[in-house]
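Box 3.1. Reading complex inputs
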Amino acid sequence: MRILWLIVALTASVPALGDEGMWTFDNFPSSTVQSTYGAQVTPAWLEHVRLSTLRLSNCTASFVSPDGLILTNHHCVESCLAELSSKDNSLLDRGFRAENRNAERRCSTQLADVLVAMDDVTAPVAKAIGGLDDKAANDARKKVLTQLEQSCEQASAKLKSGKLKCQAVTLYEGGQYFIYKYKRYDDVRLVFAPEADMAAFGGDPDNFQFPRWSLDFSMLRAYEHGKPAKTPNHLRINFAGPQADELVFVSGHPGTTQRLETRSQLEFERDMSLPNSLLRTAELRGRYIQFGRASPANEQLVEAPLDSLENGLKVRRKLLDALHDDALMTRKGAEEAALRANARFAGADPWAEIEAASMRERGLYLPYTFIEGAAGFNSILFRYARLLVRGADERAKPNTERLREFTDTALPRLEQQLYAHVPIYAEVEALTLSFSLQRMREWLGPDHPLVRQLLAQDSPDSLAARLVAETTLDDAAVRRQLWEGGKAAVAASQDPMIELARTVDGDSRALRKRFDDEVEAPISAASEKIAAGRFSAYGTHVYPDATFTLRLNYGTVQGWMENGTAVAPFTYLDRAFERATGTSPFKIPDSWMKVKSQLDMRTPFCIATNNDIVGGNSGSPLIDAQGRIVGLMFDGNIHSISGDYWFDTAKNRSVALHPAIIREALDKVYDAKSLLAELSAQ
Amino acid sequence: MRILWLIVALTASVPALGDEGMWTFDNFPSSTVQSTYGAQVTPAWLEHVRLSTLRLSNCTASFVSPDGLILTNHHCVESCLAELSSKDNSLLDRGFRAENRNAERRCSTQLADVLVAMDDVTAPVAKAIGGLDDKAANDARKKVLTQLEQSCEQASAKLKSGKLKCQAVTLYEGGQYFIYKYKRYDDVRLVFAPEADMAAFGGDPDNFQFPRWSLDFSMLRAYEHGKPAKTPNHLRINFAGPQADELVFVSGHPGTTQRLETRSQLEFERDMSLPNSLLRTAELRGRYIQFGRASPANEQLVEAPLDSLENGLKVRRKLLDALHDDALMTRKGAEEAALRANARFAGADPWAEIEAASMRERGLYLPYTFIEGAAGFNSILFRYARLLVRGADERAKPNTERLREFTDTALPRLEQQLYAHVPIYAEVEALTLSFSLQRMREWLGPDHPLVRQLLAQDSPDSLAARLVAETTLDDAAVRRQLWEGGKAAVAASQDPMIELARTVDGDSRALRKRFDDEVEAPISAASEKIAAGRFSAYGTHVYPDATFTLRLNYGTVQGWMENGTAVAPFTYLDRAFERATGTSPFKIPDSWMKVKSQLDMRTPFCIATNNDIVGGNSGSPLIDAQGRIVGLMFDGNIHSISGDYWFDTAKNRSVALHPAIIREALDKVYDAKSLLAELSAQ
């Protein structure tokens, strides 16, 4: 009877229909795949795929040759292209092809991590917080996670295989805690990128749309000790691609989902967080576009930030639509009711506790967002300044006493960012900083004490202009000096951006403390109770929310029905030429126009599948049952955006680039024969 | 028992607490005012105030001298100031003072209407639609309202007192229909306006805030036959202003409220209409601001549209906040339940009928808004083109067959707009048109048939630039020629903007027809049922929603409690100087700085009262029990914005300019002695 009851409970309350699920590699439902599709997912298959998959700064990638060659999306290397560009030479516009390995160019802010092991630390975390009140537990939880990371890294330093990066991971909203161990590549170089006009063909209008024709791929290479890394674990490419209805897998790092959050948490998103951030984003979009219109040079300066902004805008717009669908909230209510019926909460009401904390979050939201969240200081230079000011204070403390983003584990990535020679465009900095100061004054009011202090004698424009003109933090050497000089150097600095960060820091930390104690602490405690109840009722037949950690999901190549019309799962090259207007974002670049007659117009271009992916999965390999790459994920359809909250089996589809168009491009358009040989040689 | 029951019902379901209410002049609760405040509001008092109050294009005003002098807000004459400005001379920035009456300058798009009579036509409307289904009733209702307007105007043409403008008015969401008769002044001239820096001191940050220091007044004069109009009905000014807690009245034209709408109508606002329009407005704000930053000349070009846009943005932002307050929706539900319990609906469920129509409205919303609502064609030149194209078709039909905005009653105002010599700035037109085409492509999708047709060979930028460059509709003479030439002239025109309007018109009219039949018709029919039920339960102890028609409300001078702190109801001049930063919007102009030492720093500046006003009431006189002006309404506090949906007795406050600061300004700063004499002479 227990089994049957469990199945009923699952049907009633767990959205585990179809091929949904972002499974951790240690809990992949191989038996379900076997029984549904007859395919064997062995431990060896899982290990090979895991060790071939990479986590980039905000994307996924995979090794595709034994010499460290990496396949990912074009939009995942945009910041690298921007870093290697100058005002006169935009690699984003022109693309990049290294003539040979010596010409491969380092992306100084890029890292690539491979997940080599996962340790369950749920028990030591539970022990550390046992018997404490919510606020004390919240502090103790962070402290023990820092300790566990630290001891993991210290232990790995003694290994022959080399030092590992250790990162604490919270799964199931606190139902499980893990230490994930990564092998890190910190020398990553650009090998190939097509022109943005082709990589992002269709631009923002086509973003999150299917059918689709965007050549969204690029290649990097991992280096160790100045040489291409040896990567025996890599994936072969099957250029023929998959068949319709074929079983396919996606290995990657979905960023965040909120499928296990409560109704009141989603209502906070719907009523406060999304409307506010949408308004700010929409206005900044208008400012970028108008700025870009002044000259082609200006247009180029804002191309990358505008792309990223518009992507976020579309996502949040559709998230808000999803939250306005009463069906979602009803479903949440039903899930909660089923869980309450099937699990025991010992007299506690964690849903009510989360609701009370969410209400407090509403009161804190505006000052927290503008001051601690820095929405009032939208500037790369300010981010450096805050990093330097806070970093100096935090590093002076013992590791476990620090804010979590300044632990020893986190420092190397921070230092890499601080030391990188990244071009900073003063005009764009002044634009975003002035904009955000203006909005802070609007939303907090001109009589808010901090606003009054900052803008007593200044307009947002004049203050932003002065700060950007007089700071020297655009110089990586200055940043390194201040970082290495620590507290004394930062305290002595008269850099106006450092002064601003210092002025703000007291208020900002106070807001953070209130947020941590009054919002985060009770939500963490209540979420752990719900998670415990969920495990007791359903075990791990539920998958955890996405946390930008490695997951595997399965699905099939398939289209969907849109307003009664079937959308086919493949697109072909010919239609891209038919849709071209000659103007971005519907412009096919000259490189393609010149060789048009030699191209096979029936080359498959993009693929739709029902894999369950979200942002962060960009660049993930689409893998067949034999472990070969048969596509490169780069997007979802418009219905996939609601995947943050639930998986719509009928309509949520992911979008991949077909390997055949990659071969056609490298072979006939970009004349990248040696690269193609490296990809095909295995 | 009936009386007692009624009182209980009112308490339970009608939000008639405190001094709330936008009462029509024929249903003003004089006895309540007498019993509460001991003041007599006689029929003669009401008539005098009514005949002294004016309706402008989007504001209120009042006569303040026997020679047609008009007092209103500065922000109500912004379009007049823009019309009389050029790229080199901005009256908005510099202000305006006519040296004498000959120097008063005509505002060619301004009209001023005085309400002289109101005829109840509920019975003939009911007769005309009796027995028809919703769709047929909707058409018949419009037709009979046009007929009633037409016969009213024809009858008035025979009067010795002169032709009147007759306008149908829907009250109580269809519970009552009236024909309102207006004496119209179509020659309105600018007399005085201060500089924008003083009139809008505090700018957008201070908008909808109190305490406040904005000198938001201006003066116009009505002319008849080329001479100042004789206006025996006018209001005297009591420059001493009111006392705290004094009984005060506001006579004016609140624009729209939605207090009697149903929950599903408000949910449509919350989920669809407000989020969408906010996003568009926020982006356009960003584009305007960035455009303005390119040069002082550019900044001046967008000053007026940006002001108006930011005002609308703040309003909609706070409306959305109000709709996210669950208390409002709960209250709606309680009102509905009480009405269902107290009235009979003969088996009908008008709330369910409105909900079904609102759901259809969601489906139509995007194409309707972008195409028929012209959110995809944001351009003054396109509005002219559509007016010409549609006007030519509609005027060829019998009066009662036309779209309501093209009836004979409506034509004079349309013609005045078309013929006015208003400066149109090509750069701004190209900006707004390109922006709106781009967003239409985004929201309807690049594959929407109309989008594909318009943008097949063009980008939004190139299409907008070409249309604006090649059209000649910026020339008032060209517009007059096309209007007077009628259908043949418009059909023969090859003006590209006319061509665009022609291209769009078929799709656009089809969307309108669907909206009228599927949304408007059932909502009108169901709203009439609810209104009838409300009358049967409560009589006219309820006031109708605002419809930009004349209303009177009463209240007292008072502040409120904000987060435990009392906000006093008066501000004084000294604090304006203390708040000045030297930069707009906190810059006090030189005219004031020069005479600072002569000013009485304790001059009262602004007043808070609990009068129930909304947008459209701008420029309304604040009147004491003796019928004297003791303030000039120009805003509400931040809590007043939710007044669209309900009146918050505790916090909703209106904001008026104190007459003492008007005198101080005219006397000591602007040296407008003769004007001051005219104001004081009566």
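In summary: The two ends of chain B are 52 Å apart (CA to CA).
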